[in-house]
Amino acid sequence: MNSKIKKAIVLLSGGLDSTVVLSICRSLNISVYAISFDYGQRHKIELEFAKWQAKKFKCVSHKIFKIASFGGSALTDDIDVPVNKNIEDMPKEIPITYVPGRNLIFLSFAAGYAESQNIEEIYIGVNSIDYSGYPDCRQGFIDKFESLINISTKKGLEGKKFKIKTPLINLNKEEIILIGKKNNVDFSKTCSCYNPSKKKMCGICDSCLLRKKGFENAGLEE
Fold it and tell me: How far does CA 82 lie from the centroid of its chain?
């Protein structure tokens, strides 16, 4: 591969946000090395969509890392996924769908893989506006983690600094969906649901509610 071609790691869950991030990278002609994680999530169907999207957007590679289930979350444990009638009913505190240390662990894997492939840029679809209050989706966390990997890796210490890119961090769901639409994302091949039945989304978990409102505001059909 031509060394002048820009390369990046993209954390690709198979959800709406990460798929839009993938589409952004490809629209910029970035060669994408996609990574996903099988961490015992109940919405594992997202990994099938991640494979589909990686193929559609012609990623250089797509690796799925299998790691032990974290537990302690409605996404990974025998705990009911909370449901609400509308977004206004969603609790303000960090919800039980929070997976302890998830992005901390995912980005650690991403940094190690990026270093092994001589890649500086890591893209992740975190969002600090239309999200569920997760502490590892905030800019402050991203900034601190970027600093950490740049003082704890050979690449960082030799001056080839890592950069964690968060193109969706300050966008609402409507804006994210419109970017995806522009980039020809097939949203039917994404999963936002925390508790899907086979390939059908529940429509009542927090993530489904945010997705539904986003499409309504964008004036688009899912």
Answer: 21
Going by C-alpha positions, the residue among 194, 97, 175, 72 that lies closest to residue 129 is 175
51, two tokens: 């494979």
Q: What mean pLDDT comes out for the span 102-110?
A: 93
Q: What is the pLDDT of residues 15-28, one digit of tens each?
A: 999 999 999 999 99
Torsions phi, psi for 119 (to 5 deg)? -120, 135
Q: pLDDT band for position 98 (50/70/90)? A: low
SS3 state at 31: strand
Contact 82, 123 (CB under 8 A): no
- Residues 79, 188: contact at Cβ < 8 Å? no
Indicate if the pLDDT at residue 115 is higher than 90: yes
Instruction: Tell me the pairing of strands 121-123 and 163-165.
Output: parallel
Helices (H), 28-157: 45-56, 102-116, 139-151, 154-157
Q: How many residues comprise the chain? A: 222
pLDDT value at residue 1? 44
CA 41 to chain centre: 14
Q: For 39, phi and psi rounded to 5 degrees?
A: -120, 25
Please state, rounded to an integer, the average pLDDT across all residues of the chain.
88
Cβ within 8 Å of residue 194, ≥6 positions away:
42, 43, 74, 75, 81, 97, 202, 205, 206, 207, 208
What is the spatial distance between Cα 25 and Cα 183, in angstroms, rounded to a whole number?
10
Question: Where residue 137 falls among pLDDT bands split at 50, 70, 90?
Answer: confident
